[in-house]
């Protein structure tokens, strides 16, 4: 008899459910897909440009041999105290130079501009410019991160791997299969597990100002384990196809050794879409250790229901436990009726 067939029952039921036995042949025909990262070429080909200064940034401007220009607040003060804030209109003020429009300039362009204007007052000025406060350009973070503060874009290019390391993924709650990188009005869906398995591609993706990283929670990606197991519950995914049948059973404490039927381990798939596609019920005979090796190669999908049936003696005991109170009630009623008539 082949491993495929219809679950016996009413005609309407059997037409909507297909029973499939989990065998080595089935697993060979449906191997676990390898993690492969598909990254749009436009993400991999993007190369950061030199940092452009913006409103909110703070610049530290050094004029060699002129400490009164370099550190007007005093050399004993911290560097930040002597910084020059870029105002909301993109300008900053500098002695002898006045207001300068620096928004959109690179550090080198600002240095040259100040040096040229100071040359009218200082002979051959030696000017250096550095940024001591990066506050104008950010990458936004949302979702299952431990830290969701915006990440500043600096003169050192920021990679996706660095951003994720700084934000720290909440591994217990994150859906690692669907990181959404939003850029210039377009959303890119990335599988983080595949990215890290594919030559570390996450470190090859550079982020740009205005990018948004959204890491969804995995509370909607669950399988439901119920029946004769130790702790029936919903089990969440970290990545799609990351949980095997054996792992799911292990997370709930395994089969109940007293009440379960090892032959009746079922995976119900597609029950929520019966109008369009017949549901499949996969059956595993888990009475031998070899069966759990099969279960370890059988990957679950979000929405699957794992059900472990009861042993025959358990079903009989439950039948008796339900029958005896009813029989006692009937006997008591009969005895009361006999007493009333005699």
Automatic annotation (TrEMBL):
Domain SLBB: 137-213, 222-308
Transmembrane segments: none
Subcellular location as annotated: Cell outer membrane
Presence of keyword Lipoprotein: yes
InterPro entries, alphabetized: Poly_export, Poly_export_N, SLBB_dom, Wza_C
Residue ranges of domain Polysaccharide export protein N-terminal in the record: 47-131
Location of the Outer-membrane lipoprotein Wza C-terminal domain: 311-331
Gene3D superfamilies: Outer membrane lipoprotein wza domain like, wza like domain
Major localization class: membrane
Entry membrane topology: Multi-pass membrane protein
Protein keywords: Cell outer membrane, Ion transport, Lipoprotein, Membrane, Palmitate, Polysaccharide transport, Porin, Signal, Sugar transport, Transmembrane, Transmembrane beta strand, Transport
Family recorded in the similarity comment: Belongs to the BexD/CtrA/VexA family.
Protein name (Swiss-Prot/TrEMBL): Polysaccharide biosynthesis/export family protein
The species this protein was found in: Rhodanobacter humi
């Amino acid at each position: 008899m082949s491993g495929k067939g219809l679950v016996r029952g009413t005609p309407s039921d059997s037409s909507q459910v297909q029973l499939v036995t989990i065998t080595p042949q089935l697993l060979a025909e449906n191997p676990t897909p390898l993690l492969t990262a598909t990254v749009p070429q436009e993400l991999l080909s993007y190369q950061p440009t030199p940092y452009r200064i913006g409103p909110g940034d703070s610049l530290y401007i050094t004029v060699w041999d002129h400490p009164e220009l370099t550190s007007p607040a005093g050399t004993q003060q911290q560097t930040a105290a002597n910084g020059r804030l870029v105002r909301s209109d993109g300008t900053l003020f500098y002695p002898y130079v006045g207001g300068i429009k620096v928004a959109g300039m690179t550090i080198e362009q600002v240095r040259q501009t100040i040096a040229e204007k100071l040359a009218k007052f200082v002979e051959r000025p030696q000017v250096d410019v550095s940024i001591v406060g990066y506050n104008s350009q950010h990458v936004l973070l949302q979702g299952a991160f431990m830290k969701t503060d915006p990440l500043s874009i600096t003169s050192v290019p920021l990679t996706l791997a660095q951003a994720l390391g700084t934000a720290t993924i909440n591994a217990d709650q994150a859906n690692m299969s669907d990181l959404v990188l939003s850029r210039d009005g377009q959303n890119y869906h990335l599988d983080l597990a595949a990215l890290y398995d594919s030559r570390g591609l996450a470190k090859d993706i550079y982020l740009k100002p205005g990018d948004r990283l959204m890491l969804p929670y995995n509370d909607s990606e669950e399988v439901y384990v119920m029946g004769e197991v130790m702790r029936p519950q919903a089990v969440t995914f970290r990545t799609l196809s990351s949980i095997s049948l054996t792992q799911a059973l292990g997370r709930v404490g395994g089969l109940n050794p007293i009440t379960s039927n090892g032959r009746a381990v079922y995976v119900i798939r597609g029950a929520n879409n019966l109008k369009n596609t017949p549901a499949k019920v996969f059956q595993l005979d888990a009475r031998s250790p070899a069966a759990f090796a099969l279960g370890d190669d059988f990957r679950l999908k979000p929405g699957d229901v794992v059900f472990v049936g009861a042993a025959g003696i358990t079903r009989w005991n439950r039948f008796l436990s339900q029958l005896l109170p009813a029989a006692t009630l009937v006997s008591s009623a009969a005895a009361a009726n006999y007493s009333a008539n005699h």
